[in-house]
Specification:
The chain is mostly helical. It folds into 3 domains: 59 residues, no CATH class; 83 residues; 174 residues, Intergrase catalytic core (hpI Integrase, Chain A, Orthogonal Bundle), CATH 1.10.443.10. Helices cover 48% and strands 9% of the residues. It has 15 helices and 9 strands. The strands form 4 sheets. A 3-stranded antiparallel β-sheet has the order 1-2-3, covered by helices on one side. The longest helix has 20 residues. The termini are far apart.
Length: 357
């Protein structure tokens, strides 16, 4: 049987490159203007790169059709279904992201309808990512789509030969987090004298994630520590370890009072009785920003950055000790994201003075 290969005709269909598959003629496109004239060598046509690329796409489409090549939206649906069994919350977060990618139109064609092996490539992902203004959003969304494809490649029952999105580089993100100052923290304490004040004190003294503090109950308290089980905190699934949070200073009396007040359920409750979740804290911080009590970029997570930065600037703790206190296994996150002491000119000056040159 003759192996299919592109051939050129000046007269057929107005001229161009073609290939014959299963007794059907397929047009591959016109000859590029900037390419050398079509010619044969040793009885074989030598098509330009653009025609070869189109030929390989057509061949892949023919070959994979018999091997059940899947549309992107089918892969995403299967991925979300399996992910929901392991982590329902993560599946819910990924669903609108993957749905948006599938609904994206490139060259008038919906991306979700494309066959993963034969048609999907990095340009589809990059053109979709560019529709989002934030580098962080682009990075997060691109990594989500790559994860779905990586899952498909690793599934033996799914015929995805390689990850077609792997070559799309996610944009680098520079941390925009800031450290809340002691003056700003005090201004927030002076502004509120309700349960939100207790929540602010807990963030200030522990450097814990706001979401961790929002989950705290009386049962987590054991002699100067909060202990969250692996299923109750962010890194628990990866590490399999409990999250230990120290309770010191003014916070200790606050915790004892709240444990008596709420022996069951969340300790830190908003004025409606619910937890201090992202939405509830956002409203309070928006109010503070409107009153110019804090800078526009200050958010609840700024407390975590402040705790790490102040601890390192004081020189009382090593980077590894700060990492352990924040619930990390290594110092990488501390050095790359939480340590803002490099922006403190007085702190840097003291380093050179202590060098003793």
């Amino acid at each position: 049987m003759k192996t299919p290969f592109p051939w050129y005709s000046e007269t057929r269909s107005g001229g161009g490159w073609f290939v014959k598959l299963n007794n059907e003629q397929h047009a591959l496109g016109k000859h590029p203007d900037n390419a050398p004239q079509p010619r044969k060598r040793a009885g074989k046509w030598h098509p330009p790169q653009s025609i070869l690329k189109r030929f390989y796409q057509v061949m892949a489409l023919r070959d994979t059709a018999a091997k059940s090549d899947y549309a992107l939206e089918t892969i995403c649906a299967m991925y979300l279904e399996e992910l929901a069994e392991e982590d329902a919350d993560l599946s819910k977060r990924y669903e609108p992201i993957l749905g948006s990618f599938c609904d994206h139109l490139r060259k008038g064609k919906r991306v979700g309808k494309l066959l993963v092996n034969a048609e999907l490539d990095t340009e589809h992902l990059k053109s979709w990512a560019r529709t989002f203004a934030s580098d962080q959003t682009q990075r997060t969304y691109m990594n989500c789509c790559k994860a779905a494809m990586a899952w498909a490649v690793n599934k033996k029952c799914i015929n995805v030969l390689h990850n077609p999105l792997l070559g799309a580089k996610s944009p680098k993100v520079r941390s925009r987090a800031v450290v809340i100052s002691r003056q700003e923290h005090q201004a927030l304490l002076d502004q509120w004298h309700d349960s939100f004040r207790d929540f602010l004190i807990a963030m200030w003294f522990t450097g814990a994630r706001p979401g961790e503090i929002a989950k705290i109950e009386a049962r987590h308290y054991t002699t100067g520590l909060w202990r969250l089980e692996p299923r109750e905190h962010k890194t628990g699934k990866a590490t399999g370890m409990d999250r230990l949070i120290g309770i010191v200073g003014e916070l200790l009396e606050t915790v004892k009072r709240l444990c008596k007040q709420y022996p069951k359920g969340r300790l830190f409750r908003n004025t409606c009785g619910g937890p201090w979740n992202n939405q509830a804290t956002f409203v309070r911080f928006e109010t503070a920003r409107a009153k110019k009590l804090i800078r526009p970029e200050v958010v609840p997570y700024s407390y975590r950055h402040a705790w790490a930065t102040h601890a390192l600037e004081a020189g009382n703790l090593s980077e590894y000790e700060v990492a352990k206190a924040l619930g990390h296994q290594t110092t990488q996150m501390v050095m790359l994201h939480y340590d803002h002491s490099r922006r403190n000119s007085e702190h840097l000056k003291s380093i050179f003075e202590r060098a003793g040159r």
